[in-house]
Amino acid sequence: MLEAMEKTQACPTPRQIFGTNLRRARRLKEVSQEELALRSNLSRTYVSEVERGIRNVSIDNMGQLAEAIGVPLKELVDPAMFAALGENLS
After folding, report:
1. Residue 66 to residue 37: CA distance in whole angstroms
2. What Å distances lie between residue 53 and 2, 17, 47, CA to CA?
3. Which of 2, 7, 49, 74 has its CA 20 to 30 A from that of 43?
4. For residue 7, what is the DSSP state?
5. 89: pLDDT confidence band, cut at 50, 70 and 90?
6. pLDDT for 83 beyond 90
7. CATH at 49
């Protein structure tokens, strides 16, 4: 039973994958959370919560964020897309 729980915790949720990839893409483009929020017509707090994986983001808002950062949405939901960049962009 404990082993199953450890596997669950090791595997990021789709929400966490999107948030992590959004943060990495944003940092690669040297855009602040505030600037991304302005570009996407969302609040900076909302962007922060999405990036930390604590906000359940709608597909519409995912599209707005992807467009605002200039990255295709499919790349932001791909677990392997930005993984090679490592933790220094997280």
Report:
1. 11
2. 24, 8, 10
3. 74
4. H
5. low
6. no
7. 1.10.260.40
76 and 25 Cβ atoms separated by less than 8 Å: yes
15 touches 56 (CB < 8 A)? yes
Please state the length of the chain: 90
**Type of residue found at 83:** A
Residue 38, both tokens: 């302005």
Distance of CA 75 to the CA centre of its chain: 10
Q: Which two tokens stand for residue 16?
A: 């966490």
> Is residue 66 included in any domain, yes or no?
yes
Q: Cα 39 vs. chain centroid, distance in angstroms?
A: 16
pLDDT, tens digit, 9 for 90 and up, residues 35-52: 999 999 999 999 999 999
Full residue range of the structural domain in which residue 44 is found: 29-90
Number of domains in the chain: 1
